[in-house]
Design brief:
Mean pLDDT is about 75; it is low at about 10-20, about 185-195 and about 205-220. The protein has a domain at about 100-280. It has 6 helices and 11 strands. Helix content is about 20%, strand content about 25%. An 8-stranded antiparallel β-sheet has the order 2-3-4-5-11-10-9-8, sandwiched between helices. Strands 1-6-7 form a 3-stranded antiparallel β-sheet, with no helix packed on it.
Length: about 280
């Protein structure tokens, strides 16, 4: 205080202190009710929300991809099965052939069995002898289960005579009119139903083994085009043409195959499913 009674400007300034004499910490004013706590407090971590969003996006993407793939698989067309050809053993008879009584060289060249058919009878065929054959036979082959093949076979003195007789017999075959003369008599017979060239089953060579397709059909070589009737073609030994064959469907479950080979003529009535296989397997 000054002598005049006024406080001194140089006097000490009193400050409030705590019990220990230190300055108490400042307390921030309380915010309004409902204000979120400041960052770094006891609330949800800052990284949780972005992670949850990423996981949700991945789940949705997986569901969408699954739906697309499922729909695509239903629209695709199934691939067709691959055709399978199985080579079957050459059929053999279940019955024993009978003994052939004729002993001429021509008769001895005739087979006792062809595929599953065995010789059941062999007798002279006077009707062909009367037509000019030097010798002729009527023969029956059986598979032992009811299927039969009936044949007429004969030998002529010359190839021209045998060919002329073949052509006379050909005129009587049902369905042979559908085959032109060029199909049945030309050197180059072409291919297809009319004019199939039998280079692959030459007389005197083994017949191809039968085959079965995936559908179960049995054919000589698995080639259905070669097994259609009627058809005709060349009879060959090696590269040389020695005759002509013609095969037709009689329409009663049997087929007829007629051919000549040099001086010999053959006519066989066979179950239609076997008619071409029988011809191809016949060794003469």
């Amino acid at each position: 205080m000054t002598e005049s009674g006024q406080p001194s400007q140089d006097g000490p300034v009193w400050s409030q202190t705590g019990p220990s004499g230190s300055t108490p910490p400042a307390t921030p004013p309380a915010g309004p009710v409902g204000t979120p706590p400041p960052a770094g407090g006891s609330g949800r971590p800052a990284w949780l929300l972005p992670v949850a969003i990423v996981v949700a996006v991945l789940l949705v993407a997986g569901v969408v991809v699954g739906i697309v793939l499922a729909n695509r698989g239903g629209d695709e067309t199934a691939e067709p099965p691959v055709a399978i050809t199985t080579i079957l053993p050459v059929p053999t008879p279940d019955v024993e052939p009978v003994a052939r009584t004729a002993t001429t060289p021509f008769a001895q060249t005739l087979p006792d069995a062809v595929l599953q058919y065995a010789l059941a009878s062999s007798d002279p065929a006077p009707q062909w002898v009367d037509a000019g054959a030097l010798e002729a036979y009527q023969e029956t082959y059986t598979d032992g289960a009811g299927a039969e093949v009936t044949m007429l076979v004969g030998q002529w003195a010359t190839g021209d005579e045998a060919k002329a007789f073949y052509q006379a017999q050909l005129a009587e075959l049902p369905g042979a009119a559908a085959l032109s003369s060029s199909d049945t008599d030309s050197e180059q017979t072409g291919s297809g139903n009319a004019g199939s060239d039998e280079k692959g089953s030459d007389k005197g060579e083994p017949s191809p083994a039968p085959t079965r397709t995936q559908s179960g059909d049995v054919t000589a070589q698995g080639d259905t085009a070669r097994d259609k009737l009627p058809q005709t073609g060349a009879v060959r030994v090696g590269d040389k043409r020695v005759g002509t064959y013609t095969a037709v469907d009689k329409g009663d479950g049997t087929g007829i195959v007629l051919w000549f080979n040099r001086t010999a003529v053959f006519r066989a009535v066979v179950p239609v499913a076997d008619v071409l296989d029988f011809y191809r397997a016949f060794p003469v």
